[in-house]
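Inputs:
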Amino acid sequence: MVKWLKDAVFYEIYPQSFCDSNGDGIGDIPGMTEKLDYIHDLGCNAIWLNPVYDSPFRDAGYDVRDYCKVAERYGTNEDLYHFFAEAHARKMHVLMDLVPGHTSDEHAWFQQSKKDDVNAYAKRYVWTSDAFEGIADHPYVSGNAPRSGVYMLNFFISQPALNYGWGLRTAPWQSAADSPEAVSTREAMKDIMRFWLDHGCDGFRCDMADSLVKNDDEQKHATAAVWQNIRQMLDSEYPHAAIVSEWSNPTSAINLAGFHMDFYLDHHHNGYNTLLRDYECNEADNSFFRREGHGDINRFLMDYLPKYNAIKEHGYISMFTCNHDTPRASRTLSAEELKLAYAFLFTMPGVPFLYYGDEIGMKYLDLASVEGGYHRTGSRTPMQWNHQKNYGFSSAEMDQVYIAQDSDANVPTLADQSHDPASLFNVTKQIIALRHANEDLQADALFDVIDADHQVFVYRRGNMICAVNASNHEANVKDPALQGKKIIYTIHEAEVQEDELKLGSGSFAVLK
Ligand code: NOJ
Protein backbone atom coordinates (compact mmCIF):
# COMPACT_ATOMS: atom_id res chain seq x y z
CA MET A 1 0.00 0.00 0.00
CA VAL A 2 1.23 3.49 -0.78
CA LYS A 3 1.59 5.09 2.67
CA TRP A 4 0.65 8.68 1.84
CA LEU A 5 -2.83 7.59 0.77
CA LYS A 6 -3.79 6.80 4.35
CA ASP A 7 -4.27 10.47 5.20
CA ALA A 8 -4.86 11.79 1.68
CA VAL A 9 -7.77 14.11 0.92
CA PHE A 10 -7.87 14.92 -2.79
CA TYR A 11 -8.93 18.10 -4.54
CA GLU A 12 -9.92 17.70 -8.19
CA ILE A 13 -8.80 20.59 -10.38
CA TYR A 14 -10.50 21.02 -13.73
CA PRO A 15 -7.69 23.17 -15.15
CA GLN A 16 -9.61 25.22 -17.69
CA SER A 17 -11.91 26.53 -14.94
CA PHE A 18 -9.73 27.05 -11.90
CA CYS A 19 -7.62 30.18 -12.23
CA ASP A 20 -6.58 32.19 -15.28
CA SER A 21 -3.24 33.87 -14.57
CA ASN A 22 -2.67 35.52 -17.97
CA GLY A 23 -6.10 36.97 -18.71
CA ASP A 24 -6.83 34.93 -21.85
CA GLY A 25 -10.14 33.69 -20.46
CA ILE A 26 -9.08 30.14 -19.66
CA GLY A 27 -7.47 28.60 -16.57
CA ASP A 28 -3.79 27.68 -16.64
CA ILE A 29 -0.99 26.02 -14.70
CA PRO A 30 0.60 29.18 -13.24
CA GLY A 31 -2.91 30.01 -11.97
CA MET A 32 -3.13 26.60 -10.29
CA THR A 33 0.28 27.14 -8.73
CA GLU A 34 -0.88 30.50 -7.29
CA LYS A 35 -3.76 28.70 -5.62
CA LEU A 36 -1.79 25.84 -4.06
CA ASP A 37 -1.72 27.58 -0.68
CA TYR A 38 -5.49 27.89 -0.84
CA ILE A 39 -5.93 24.15 -1.49
CA HIS A 40 -3.42 23.34 1.22
CA ASP A 41 -5.18 25.60 3.77
CA LEU A 42 -8.48 23.96 2.95
CA GLY A 43 -6.84 20.74 4.10
CA CYS A 44 -6.51 18.93 0.79
CA ASN A 45 -3.06 17.41 0.62
CA ALA A 46 -3.41 15.76 -2.80
CA ILE A 47 -4.62 16.82 -6.22
CA TRP A 48 -6.23 15.05 -9.14
CA LEU A 49 -5.54 17.16 -12.19
CA ASN A 50 -7.79 16.61 -15.21
CA PRO A 51 -5.93 16.30 -18.56
CA VAL A 52 -3.51 19.12 -19.38
CA TYR A 53 -2.00 17.51 -22.50
CA ASP A 54 -1.87 18.98 -25.97
CA SER A 55 -5.29 18.34 -27.48
CA PRO A 56 -7.84 19.67 -29.96
CA PHE A 57 -10.26 19.70 -26.97
CA ARG A 58 -13.19 17.91 -28.55
CA ASP A 59 -13.63 16.15 -25.21
CA ALA A 60 -12.14 18.72 -22.82
CA GLY A 61 -8.65 17.21 -23.18
CA TYR A 62 -9.62 13.53 -22.92
CA ASP A 63 -8.70 13.52 -26.60
CA VAL A 64 -4.92 13.59 -26.29
CA ARG A 65 -2.82 14.72 -29.25
CA ASP A 66 0.52 14.50 -27.45
CA TYR A 67 0.85 12.69 -24.13
CA CYS A 68 4.17 14.29 -23.28
CA LYS A 69 3.39 17.92 -24.02
CA VAL A 70 1.36 20.38 -21.97
CA ALA A 71 -1.34 22.18 -24.00
CA GLU A 72 -0.18 25.69 -24.86
CA ARG A 73 -3.26 27.26 -23.34
CA TYR A 74 -2.24 25.86 -19.95
CA GLY A 75 1.44 26.82 -20.17
CA THR A 76 4.58 24.76 -20.70
CA ASN A 77 5.94 21.47 -19.44
CA GLU A 78 8.27 23.54 -17.22
CA ASP A 79 5.23 25.23 -15.65
CA LEU A 80 3.86 21.81 -14.79
CA TYR A 81 7.18 20.56 -13.37
CA HIS A 82 7.25 23.72 -11.25
CA PHE A 83 3.68 23.01 -10.10
CA PHE A 84 4.75 19.51 -8.98
CA ALA A 85 7.73 20.96 -7.11
CA GLU A 86 5.60 23.61 -5.38
CA ALA A 87 3.05 20.94 -4.40
CA HIS A 88 5.82 18.77 -2.98
CA ALA A 89 7.22 21.74 -1.05
CA ARG A 90 3.83 21.80 0.72
CA LYS A 91 3.89 18.00 1.23
CA MET A 92 1.14 17.59 -1.33
CA HIS A 93 0.89 14.93 -4.05
CA VAL A 94 -0.37 15.31 -7.60
CA LEU A 95 -2.07 12.70 -9.77
CA MET A 96 -2.32 13.39 -13.48
CA ASP A 97 -5.11 12.02 -15.63
CA LEU A 98 -3.92 9.14 -17.79
CA VAL A 99 -6.08 8.43 -20.83
CA PRO A 100 -4.88 4.97 -21.85
CA GLY A 101 -7.85 3.73 -23.90
CA HIS A 102 -7.85 6.18 -26.80
CA THR A 103 -6.12 9.19 -28.27
CA SER A 104 -7.35 12.10 -30.34
CA ASP A 105 -7.62 11.28 -34.03
CA GLU A 106 -5.02 14.04 -34.41
CA HIS A 107 -2.40 12.08 -32.44
CA ALA A 108 0.74 11.25 -34.50
CA TRP A 109 0.20 7.51 -33.87
CA PHE A 110 -3.22 7.67 -35.46
CA GLN A 111 -2.01 9.80 -38.35
CA GLN A 112 0.43 6.95 -39.12
CA SER A 113 -2.06 4.21 -38.37
CA LYS A 114 -4.63 5.44 -40.87
CA LYS A 115 -2.15 5.47 -43.78
CA ASP A 116 -2.52 2.97 -46.54
CA ASP A 117 1.03 1.65 -46.15
CA VAL A 118 1.83 -0.72 -43.31
CA ASN A 119 3.94 1.02 -40.68
CA ALA A 120 4.94 0.63 -37.05
CA TYR A 121 1.58 2.08 -35.88
CA ALA A 122 -0.69 0.03 -38.16
CA LYS A 123 -1.84 -2.12 -35.23
CA ARG A 124 -1.66 0.54 -32.50
CA TYR A 125 -5.44 1.05 -32.94
CA VAL A 126 -8.29 -1.39 -33.54
CA TRP A 127 -8.90 -1.73 -37.29
CA THR A 128 -10.84 -4.29 -39.29
CA SER A 129 -9.19 -5.60 -42.44
CA ASP A 130 -11.59 -4.08 -44.93
CA ALA A 131 -13.30 -0.69 -45.30
CA PHE A 132 -16.65 -2.50 -45.66
CA GLU A 133 -16.27 -4.73 -42.62
CA GLY A 134 -17.86 -3.23 -39.50
CA ILE A 135 -17.40 -4.12 -35.82
CA ALA A 136 -20.37 -5.80 -34.19
CA ASP A 137 -21.55 -4.28 -30.89
CA HIS A 138 -18.98 -1.48 -30.91
CA PRO A 139 -19.00 2.03 -32.40
CA TYR A 140 -16.69 2.53 -35.36
CA VAL A 141 -15.88 4.89 -38.23
CA SER A 142 -15.76 3.81 -41.85
CA GLY A 143 -14.68 5.62 -44.99
CA ASN A 144 -12.56 8.18 -43.17
CA ALA A 145 -9.01 6.99 -43.89
CA PRO A 146 -6.80 6.11 -46.86
CA ARG A 147 -6.37 2.67 -45.28
CA SER A 148 -8.95 0.02 -46.11
CA GLY A 149 -10.52 -0.84 -42.78
CA VAL A 150 -12.85 0.68 -40.23
CA TYR A 151 -11.51 1.85 -36.88
CA MET A 152 -13.13 1.38 -33.53
CA LEU A 153 -14.13 4.29 -31.30
CA ASN A 154 -13.66 4.31 -27.57
CA PHE A 155 -15.87 7.30 -26.82
CA PHE A 156 -16.61 10.27 -29.11
CA ILE A 157 -15.98 10.18 -32.86
CA SER A 158 -12.63 11.92 -32.39
CA GLN A 159 -11.35 9.21 -30.01
CA PRO A 160 -10.14 6.04 -31.78
CA ALA A 161 -9.58 3.04 -29.52
CA LEU A 162 -6.02 1.97 -28.80
CA ASN A 163 -5.33 -1.69 -29.35
CA TYR A 164 -4.85 -3.79 -26.19
CA GLY A 165 -6.24 -6.85 -27.94
CA TRP A 166 -9.42 -8.82 -27.45
CA GLY A 167 -10.57 -11.31 -24.85
CA LEU A 168 -13.02 -13.35 -26.89
CA ARG A 169 -11.82 -13.18 -30.52
CA THR A 170 -14.26 -13.75 -33.36
CA ALA A 171 -12.41 -12.24 -36.35
CA PRO A 172 -8.85 -12.59 -37.64
CA TRP A 173 -8.10 -8.84 -37.35
CA GLN A 174 -8.74 -8.97 -33.60
CA SER A 175 -5.39 -9.11 -31.82
CA ALA A 176 -4.90 -11.40 -28.84
CA ALA A 177 -4.41 -9.62 -25.52
CA ASP A 178 -0.87 -11.00 -25.37
CA SER A 179 -0.01 -10.26 -29.01
CA PRO A 180 3.08 -8.15 -29.77
CA GLU A 181 0.89 -5.20 -30.85
CA ALA A 182 -1.20 -5.28 -27.65
CA VAL A 183 1.97 -5.52 -25.56
CA SER A 184 3.52 -2.65 -27.47
CA THR A 185 0.52 -0.37 -26.72
CA ARG A 186 0.84 -1.24 -23.03
CA GLU A 187 4.59 -0.58 -23.07
CA ALA A 188 4.02 2.77 -24.78
CA MET A 189 1.59 3.73 -22.01
CA LYS A 190 4.14 2.67 -19.37
CA ASP A 191 6.72 4.93 -21.00
CA ILE A 192 4.30 7.86 -20.84
CA MET A 193 3.76 7.16 -17.14
CA ARG A 194 7.53 7.00 -16.57
CA PHE A 195 7.96 10.30 -18.40
CA TRP A 196 5.64 12.17 -16.01
CA LEU A 197 6.71 10.30 -12.89
CA ASP A 198 10.32 11.20 -13.71
CA HIS A 199 9.23 14.83 -13.92
CA GLY A 200 7.60 14.79 -10.51
CA CYS A 201 4.03 13.62 -10.74
CA ASP A 202 2.91 11.16 -8.06
CA GLY A 203 0.64 8.86 -10.01
CA PHE A 204 -2.45 8.79 -12.17
CA ARG A 205 -6.20 8.75 -12.29
CA CYS A 206 -6.81 6.19 -15.04
CA ASP A 207 -9.59 7.00 -17.47
CA MET A 208 -12.03 4.22 -18.46
CA ALA A 209 -9.64 1.78 -16.83
CA ASP A 210 -12.01 -1.17 -17.17
CA SER A 211 -12.27 -1.20 -20.93
CA LEU A 212 -8.78 -1.60 -22.39
CA VAL A 213 -9.14 -5.16 -23.73
CA LYS A 214 -12.24 -5.53 -25.87
CA ASN A 215 -14.74 -8.39 -25.45
CA ASP A 216 -13.21 -9.14 -22.08
CA ASP A 217 -15.02 -11.42 -19.61
CA GLU A 218 -17.35 -10.09 -16.94
CA GLN A 219 -14.69 -9.53 -14.31
CA LYS A 220 -12.34 -8.14 -16.96
CA HIS A 221 -9.49 -10.54 -16.35
CA ALA A 222 -7.56 -9.60 -19.50
CA THR A 223 -7.83 -5.87 -18.80
CA ALA A 224 -6.82 -6.54 -15.18
CA ALA A 225 -3.71 -8.35 -16.43
CA VAL A 226 -2.62 -5.20 -18.31
CA TRP A 227 -2.95 -3.17 -15.10
CA GLN A 228 -1.19 -5.81 -13.01
CA ASN A 229 1.75 -5.53 -15.35
CA ILE A 230 1.68 -1.72 -14.97
CA ARG A 231 1.39 -2.03 -11.19
CA GLN A 232 4.46 -4.28 -11.11
CA MET A 233 6.40 -1.63 -12.99
CA LEU A 234 5.23 1.01 -10.49
CA ASP A 235 6.06 -1.17 -7.50
CA SER A 236 9.58 -1.77 -8.72
CA GLU A 237 10.40 1.63 -10.26
CA TYR A 238 8.10 4.13 -8.48
CA PRO A 239 6.92 2.54 -5.22
CA HIS A 240 5.41 5.82 -3.95
CA ALA A 241 3.24 6.34 -7.01
CA ALA A 242 -0.52 5.78 -6.70
CA ILE A 243 -3.16 4.87 -9.25
CA VAL A 244 -6.91 5.33 -9.00
CA SER A 245 -9.25 3.75 -11.49
CA GLU A 246 -12.36 4.93 -13.22
CA TRP A 247 -13.89 1.47 -12.94
CA SER A 248 -16.45 1.42 -10.11
CA ASN A 249 -16.03 -2.24 -9.44
CA PRO A 250 -13.47 -2.43 -6.65
CA THR A 251 -13.32 -6.21 -6.56
CA SER A 252 -11.99 -6.23 -10.11
CA ALA A 253 -10.13 -2.91 -10.00
CA ILE A 254 -8.36 -3.43 -6.68
CA ASN A 255 -8.23 -7.19 -6.11
CA LEU A 256 -7.63 -8.27 -9.71
CA ALA A 257 -6.10 -5.28 -11.48
CA GLY A 258 -4.00 -3.95 -8.60
CA PHE A 259 -5.27 -0.37 -8.37
CA HIS A 260 -4.64 1.35 -5.05
CA MET A 261 -8.05 3.05 -5.21
CA ASP A 262 -11.21 2.69 -7.26
CA PHE A 263 -13.83 5.42 -7.74
CA TYR A 264 -17.36 4.67 -6.61
CA LEU A 265 -18.94 6.40 -9.60
CA ASP A 266 -22.37 7.96 -9.88
CA HIS A 267 -24.01 5.02 -11.63
CA HIS A 268 -27.76 4.69 -11.62
CA HIS A 269 -29.11 2.63 -8.74
CA ASN A 270 -25.76 1.95 -7.10
CA GLY A 271 -25.17 2.79 -3.45
CA TYR A 272 -23.36 6.07 -4.09
CA ASN A 273 -26.18 7.28 -6.34
CA THR A 274 -28.72 6.88 -3.52
CA LEU A 275 -26.84 9.33 -1.29
CA LEU A 276 -26.97 12.54 -3.31
CA ARG A 277 -28.60 12.02 -6.70
CA ASP A 278 -31.49 9.63 -6.29
CA TYR A 279 -33.51 12.03 -8.51
CA GLU A 280 -31.62 10.56 -11.47
CA CYS A 281 -33.54 7.33 -10.94
CA ASN A 282 -36.61 8.25 -8.89
CA GLU A 283 -38.80 11.26 -9.41
CA ALA A 284 -39.56 11.30 -5.68
CA ASP A 285 -35.85 11.89 -4.96
CA ASN A 286 -35.22 9.89 -1.84
CA SER A 287 -31.55 10.79 -1.64
CA PHE A 288 -30.25 10.00 1.84
CA PHE A 289 -29.09 13.59 2.36
CA ARG A 290 -32.31 15.24 1.17
CA ARG A 291 -33.97 16.30 4.36
CA GLU A 292 -37.51 16.25 3.00
CA GLY A 293 -37.10 12.96 1.19
CA HIS A 294 -37.53 9.43 2.49
CA GLY A 295 -33.96 8.31 2.25
CA ASP A 296 -32.61 5.10 3.68
CA ILE A 297 -28.91 4.54 4.33
CA ASN A 298 -29.49 0.81 3.89
CA ARG A 299 -29.85 1.35 0.15
CA PHE A 300 -26.27 2.60 0.21
CA LEU A 301 -25.00 -0.04 2.61
CA MET A 302 -26.45 -2.98 0.70
CA ASP A 303 -24.27 -2.08 -2.27
CA TYR A 304 -21.28 -0.61 -0.42
CA LEU A 305 -20.64 -3.12 2.36
CA PRO A 306 -19.94 -6.23 0.23
CA LYS A 307 -17.59 -4.12 -1.92
CA TYR A 308 -15.83 -2.60 1.06
CA ASN A 309 -15.45 -5.97 2.81
CA ALA A 310 -14.04 -7.56 -0.33
CA ILE A 311 -11.27 -4.98 -0.81
CA LYS A 312 -10.48 -3.48 2.57
CA GLU A 313 -7.23 -5.42 2.98
CA HIS A 314 -5.97 -4.46 -0.46
CA GLY A 315 -7.02 -0.93 -1.37
CA TYR A 316 -9.49 1.88 -1.05
CA ILE A 317 -12.88 2.85 -2.39
CA SER A 318 -12.87 6.53 -3.33
CA MET A 319 -16.04 8.54 -2.88
CA PHE A 320 -16.28 12.06 -4.23
CA THR A 321 -18.45 15.11 -3.65
CA CYS A 322 -18.82 15.26 -7.46
CA ASN A 323 -16.58 15.11 -10.51
CA HIS A 324 -16.40 16.79 -13.92
CA ASP A 325 -18.87 14.24 -15.39
CA THR A 326 -21.51 14.43 -12.65
CA PRO A 327 -24.07 17.10 -11.73
CA ARG A 328 -22.95 19.06 -8.70
CA ALA A 329 -24.81 17.88 -5.60
CA SER A 330 -25.94 21.48 -5.00
CA ARG A 331 -28.33 20.97 -7.91
CA THR A 332 -30.81 19.54 -5.42
CA LEU A 333 -29.23 19.85 -1.99
CA SER A 334 -29.00 22.99 0.18
CA ALA A 335 -25.78 24.12 1.84
CA GLU A 336 -27.05 22.65 5.14
CA GLU A 337 -27.65 19.29 3.50
CA LEU A 338 -24.25 19.43 1.80
CA LYS A 339 -22.52 19.97 5.14
CA LEU A 340 -23.83 16.62 6.36
CA ALA A 341 -23.00 14.93 3.07
CA TYR A 342 -19.40 16.12 3.19
CA ALA A 343 -19.12 15.26 6.89
CA PHE A 344 -20.11 11.71 5.96
CA LEU A 345 -17.89 11.50 2.84
CA PHE A 346 -14.81 12.76 4.72
CA THR A 347 -15.24 10.44 7.70
CA MET A 348 -15.81 7.24 5.76
CA PRO A 349 -13.02 4.75 5.02
CA GLY A 350 -11.13 4.99 1.73
CA VAL A 351 -9.69 8.07 0.09
CA PRO A 352 -12.14 10.98 -0.44
CA PHE A 353 -12.13 13.47 -3.32
CA LEU A 354 -13.49 17.03 -3.28
CA TYR A 355 -14.39 18.58 -6.64
CA TYR A 356 -13.24 22.21 -7.01
CA GLY A 357 -15.99 24.65 -6.10
CA ASP A 358 -17.96 22.12 -4.08
CA GLU A 359 -16.42 23.55 -0.93
CA ILE A 360 -18.51 26.69 -1.52
CA GLY A 361 -21.51 24.88 -3.02
CA MET A 362 -21.08 26.13 -6.58
CA LYS A 363 -24.22 25.58 -8.59
CA TYR A 364 -24.90 23.24 -11.48
CA LEU A 365 -25.86 25.51 -14.41
CA ASP A 366 -27.98 24.79 -17.42
CA LEU A 367 -25.52 25.65 -20.22
CA ALA A 368 -24.92 24.94 -23.89
CA SER A 369 -22.16 22.40 -24.47
CA VAL A 370 -18.54 23.57 -24.33
CA GLU A 371 -15.64 21.36 -25.49
CA GLY A 372 -17.71 18.20 -25.69
CA GLY A 373 -19.14 18.67 -22.23
CA TYR A 374 -22.86 18.47 -23.16
CA HIS A 375 -24.86 18.15 -19.92
CA ARG A 376 -21.57 17.93 -18.00
CA THR A 377 -20.79 21.55 -18.92
CA GLY A 378 -23.00 22.77 -16.06
CA SER A 379 -20.57 21.32 -13.50
CA ARG A 380 -17.49 22.80 -15.18
CA THR A 381 -17.94 26.56 -14.74
CA PRO A 382 -15.09 28.75 -13.44
CA MET A 383 -14.25 28.83 -9.76
CA GLN A 384 -15.92 31.71 -7.95
CA TRP A 385 -13.15 33.25 -5.89
CA ASN A 386 -14.61 36.67 -5.06
CA HIS A 387 -16.84 39.45 -6.38
CA GLN A 388 -14.28 41.00 -8.69
CA LYS A 389 -14.42 40.72 -12.47
CA ASN A 390 -15.47 37.19 -13.52
CA TYR A 391 -15.55 36.29 -9.82
CA GLY A 392 -11.79 36.62 -9.67
CA PHE A 393 -11.29 33.77 -12.15
CA SER A 394 -9.92 35.87 -15.01
CA SER A 395 -9.15 39.45 -15.92
CA ALA A 396 -10.38 38.87 -19.49
CA GLU A 397 -13.46 40.65 -20.80
CA MET A 398 -16.55 38.68 -19.77
CA ASP A 399 -17.31 37.55 -23.32
CA GLN A 400 -13.74 36.24 -23.63
CA VAL A 401 -14.13 33.78 -20.74
CA TYR A 402 -14.27 30.37 -22.42
CA ILE A 403 -17.43 29.29 -20.62
CA ALA A 404 -20.31 31.16 -18.98
CA GLN A 405 -20.36 31.88 -15.27
CA ASP A 406 -23.15 31.88 -12.72
CA SER A 407 -25.12 35.14 -12.98
CA ASP A 408 -27.37 34.57 -9.97
CA ALA A 409 -27.45 37.46 -7.52
CA ASN A 410 -26.63 35.11 -4.63
CA VAL A 411 -23.73 33.39 -6.30
CA PRO A 412 -21.56 31.63 -3.70
CA THR A 413 -17.99 32.90 -3.52
CA LEU A 414 -15.00 31.93 -1.48
CA ALA A 415 -14.51 35.52 -0.30
CA ASP A 416 -17.98 35.66 1.29
CA GLN A 417 -17.78 32.22 2.81
CA SER A 418 -14.32 32.48 4.26
CA HIS A 419 -15.56 35.24 6.64
CA ASP A 420 -18.55 33.25 7.86
CA PRO A 421 -17.61 30.61 10.46
CA ALA A 422 -20.79 28.62 9.75
CA SER A 423 -20.39 28.61 5.95
CA LEU A 424 -20.18 25.43 3.92
CA PHE A 425 -16.56 26.32 3.21
CA ASN A 426 -15.58 26.60 6.88
CA VAL A 427 -17.49 23.46 7.88
CA THR A 428 -15.79 21.53 5.05
CA LYS A 429 -12.45 22.79 6.29
CA GLN A 430 -13.21 21.76 9.88
CA ILE A 431 -14.19 18.24 8.89
CA ILE A 432 -11.09 17.74 6.78
CA ALA A 433 -8.97 19.02 9.67
CA LEU A 434 -10.70 16.56 11.99
CA ARG A 435 -9.81 13.71 9.64
CA HIS A 436 -6.16 14.73 9.56
CA ALA A 437 -6.06 15.05 13.35
CA ASN A 438 -7.53 11.58 14.01
CA GLU A 439 -6.06 8.45 12.49
CA ASP A 440 -9.33 6.74 13.35
CA LEU A 441 -11.09 8.79 10.68
CA GLN A 442 -8.56 8.03 7.95
CA ALA A 443 -8.49 5.63 5.02
CA ASP A 444 -7.92 2.27 6.65
CA ALA A 445 -9.12 2.60 10.23
CA LEU A 446 -11.80 0.10 11.21
CA PHE A 447 -15.31 0.76 9.97
CA ASP A 448 -18.52 -0.88 11.00
CA VAL A 449 -22.18 -0.08 11.31
CA ILE A 450 -23.67 0.66 14.74
CA ASP A 451 -27.12 1.78 13.66
CA ALA A 452 -28.63 2.23 10.21
CA ASP A 453 -32.24 3.31 10.25
CA HIS A 454 -33.62 5.30 7.34
CA GLN A 455 -32.00 8.75 7.54
CA VAL A 456 -30.04 8.01 10.70
CA PHE A 457 -26.65 6.40 10.38
CA VAL A 458 -24.21 5.74 13.23
CA TYR A 459 -20.88 4.14 12.40
CA ARG A 460 -17.68 3.21 14.15
CA ARG A 461 -14.31 4.44 12.89
CA GLY A 462 -11.52 2.91 14.97
CA ASN A 463 -12.33 3.97 18.54
CA MET A 464 -14.44 6.86 17.39
CA ILE A 465 -18.10 7.04 16.44
CA CYS A 466 -19.71 9.21 13.78
CA ALA A 467 -23.43 9.85 13.61
CA VAL A 468 -25.57 11.58 11.06
CA ASN A 469 -29.25 12.40 11.18
CA ALA A 470 -30.16 13.57 7.70
CA SER A 471 -33.90 13.73 8.44
CA ASN A 472 -36.19 16.63 9.35
CA HIS A 473 -36.95 15.31 12.85
CA GLU A 474 -35.02 14.50 16.00
CA ALA A 475 -33.64 11.02 16.52
CA ASN A 476 -32.47 9.01 19.51
CA VAL A 477 -29.99 6.20 19.29
CA LYS A 478 -29.26 3.86 22.20
CA ASP A 479 -26.25 1.60 21.95
CA PRO A 480 -23.70 0.25 24.47
CA ALA A 481 -20.92 1.46 22.14
CA LEU A 482 -21.86 5.06 23.06
CA GLN A 483 -21.14 4.54 26.75
CA GLY A 484 -18.20 6.64 27.90
CA LYS A 485 -17.93 8.59 24.64
CA LYS A 486 -17.79 12.37 24.44
CA ILE A 487 -18.85 14.53 21.54
CA ILE A 488 -15.84 16.26 19.99
CA TYR A 489 -17.50 17.81 16.94
CA THR A 490 -21.04 18.62 15.84
CA ILE A 491 -22.99 20.22 13.07
CA HIS A 492 -26.19 21.44 14.73
CA GLU A 493 -27.40 19.94 17.99
CA ALA A 494 -26.35 16.57 19.33
CA GLU A 495 -26.04 15.35 22.91
CA VAL A 496 -24.84 12.11 24.47
CA GLN A 497 -25.83 10.75 27.88
CA GLU A 498 -24.58 7.32 28.94
CA ASP A 499 -25.52 5.03 26.05
CA GLU A 500 -27.98 7.38 24.42
CA LEU A 501 -27.35 9.88 21.66
CA LYS A 502 -29.86 12.59 20.81
CA LEU A 503 -29.47 13.93 17.31
CA GLY A 504 -31.26 17.10 16.26
CA SER A 505 -32.74 17.23 12.79
CA GLY A 506 -30.04 17.67 10.15
CA SER A 507 -27.15 17.02 12.52
CA PHE A 508 -23.81 15.28 12.53
CA ALA A 509 -21.62 14.33 15.47
CA VAL A 510 -18.23 12.78 16.07
CA LEU A 511 -17.65 11.05 19.42
CA LYS A 512 -14.43 9.91 20.98
C1 NOJ B 1 -14.24 9.60 -18.62
C2 NOJ B 1 -13.90 11.04 -18.36
O1 NOJ B 1 -14.09 11.33 -17.00
C3 NOJ B 1 -14.78 11.84 -19.27
O2 NOJ B 1 -14.75 13.21 -18.96
C4 NOJ B 1 -14.36 11.57 -20.69
O3 NOJ B 1 -15.24 12.23 -21.57
C5 NOJ B 1 -14.41 10.07 -21.00
N1 NOJ B 1 -13.87 9.26 -19.95
C6 NOJ B 1 -13.64 9.75 -22.27
O4 NOJ B 1 -12.27 9.86 -22.05
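The longest strand covers residues 447-453. Flag for discussion at group meeting.
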